[in-house]
Amino acid sequence: MSYPATPWTLCGKAIASLHLVNINQVRSLIPSELQIFSVWPGKTLGCVYLSNYGEGSVLEYSELIVAPAVVSYQNKIGAWISHIYVDNVDSVAGGREIWGLPKELADFTWEEDQRVRVSQGDRNLCTLNYTQQSLAWRQRLTGSTFSVKGVELLKFSAECEARLGLISSQLEVPTDSPFASLGLGQAFLTGRFEQMTLTVAHPAIVGQRVGEVIYR
């Protein structure tokens, strides 16, 4: 297996939905060094991100990211990814070896530009039904994510430029899905990214781990 050097530039489309998540349901998935950022009493902000990267990308693949919390460390704020799936073995290797992300292989079925299903074998991980953009505008966004690799606590940034529009969506997570226990519920906001260019930077070491992270 081989994978490109950082930064990774990925081109295509994506859908991101935002959810209010109970902090006590995700605390065990977050390294003890990171504080969970509360956006409402007992609630943090979660995100489900589904994308398809095609022509112009350093690797072509589909991706599902489940980020159940916003966290902070030494006055820096970012997302924490608990589950991540792709359909490209090189992306799995790069994600694990560069960013320390728990990438797994999965199958993606994009149906008539209104539904995407993600599965592993006979097990359905989730299904997202979504609508097309009606009003959209060019937007540039940046964000940060924390991860761990060995004993190192990492942080990396991503910059996105896309034609962004607000849409409606419905996320279905079966009870036997690995992230069903997160209780994501219905999204309160969903964005659709078209003509997207996403650049993911090399991670920086920001600290050391003192405990184990349990991925479920």
From TrEMBL:
Which domain of life does the UniProt lineage start with?
A: Bacteria
Q: Which GO terms describe its molecular function?
A: lyase activity
The record ties this protein, via Pfam families, to: ADC
InterPro entries assigned: Acetoacetate_decarboxylase, ADC_dom_sf, NDX1-like
Q: What is this protein called?
A: Acetoacetate decarboxylase
